[in-house]
Amino acid sequence: MTTAPQEAFLQAFHAEYPAVTAEAFGRGRAPDGRSSYEILCDQVAGSRRVLDLGCGDGLLLELLARRVGRQLAGVDLSSHSLALARRRPALSGATLEQGRAQELPFADDSFDACVSHMALMLMSEIEQVAAEVARVLSPGGVLACVVGGGAVGGEAFERFLTLLRRTVEETPASQRIPALGDKRTRSREGLDEVLGPAGFAAVGWETVPVCLTGPVEQVWAAVSGVYDLGPLDRATVEGLRKAFIAEVRDLTTSDGHVPCAFKIHLATAQLR
Ligand SMILES: C[S@@+](CC[C@H](N)C(=O)[O-])C[C@H]1O[C@@H](n2cnc3c(N)ncnc32)[C@H](O)[C@@H]1O
């Protein structure tokens, strides 16, 4: 399988929407009040040299930079997202490289931890990614990832996904996105299968609901950040927006908020 169409799609999408994930999910909150970025940051609290795989516009790296003395690096396919990361004053000392997780531009044993927020699940040739992460981590190093886990159910994200599925089915193939990533990254068993041969111990796995509840336009802004909307024409997206607003009307609470949530899986594995 060639990864070129998938990676070309991701680069083109993020050229247009370089900060879409941070904008969509940065304000999401788990039951304990933390964002999914903060949860991941806390997982590697004791690590000094940290690499962010698929770092996007650098929101997670900025959180990591709050600990003084850290050596930070980020890699991403998107030069446009990296340009935003480079503008963050907190990341002036970080190494930010355009590149592929399958061919990391770092020496062996460079990091104590590798983090990845909503990016591992998009990567093809995932065994190669696992081998590269193992190569750049020191023995005992940690990989900690957040991957998407879908809708919680009974709320706006679930309804959005139903509408989106219907819309995409009715859309010409030219407006559909290529299949992205390897679905084994979305389950504990699958990740064990990928990471074990690269030298990682058994994967730790936790599923956390993240709340995106808010006024309907704010909720729409969050859910419409998904990749599938990228190739759709303006009229189709506008039709979907109107259908979504109508579809969630009965969910709206007396304070004008629409309940919305999605699940994340937090996966951690230590290099033996
Ligand atoms: C959904 S965005 C998440 C960005 C950021 N981690 C965040 O959560 O805000 C996924 C990111 O992974 C990057 N990415 C996907 N596949 C990649 C690969 N093989 N190598 C490097 N970066 C990749 C994309 O360019 C994109 O910036």
Brief write-up:
The chain has 10 helices and 7 strands.
The secondary-structure element order is HHHEHEHEEHEHHEHHE
Query: Beta-sheet strand percentage?
Result: 15-25%
Query: And the CATH topology?
Result: Rossmann fold
Distance between the termini: 30 Å
- Strand order in space, largest sheet: 3-2-1-4-5-7-6
| Distinct ligands | S-adenosylmethionine
Indicate how many domains the architecture comprises: 1
Outline the structure in words.
With 272 residues, this protein is α/β, with parallel strands linked by helices. It has a single domain (4-151, 178-211, 262-270), classed as Vaccinia Virus protein VP39 (Rossmann fold), CATH 3.40.50.150. It is built from ten helices and seven strands. The chain has helices at 4-16, 20-25, 36-43, 59-64, 79-86, 126-136, 156-169, 188-195, 216-223, 234-247; strands spanning 49-53, 71-76, 95-98, 111-117, 137-151, 204-211, 261-270. The protein has a seven-stranded mixed β-sheet, sandwiched between helices. α7 (156-169) packs antiparallel against α10 (234-247). The protein is globular and about 55 Å long. S-adenosylmethionine binds at residues 10, 14, 21-22, 54-56, 59, 75-78, 81, 100-102, 117-119, 122-123. S-adenosylmethionine is lined by residues 10, 14, 21-22, 54-56, 59, 75-78, 81, 100-102, 117-119, 122-123.
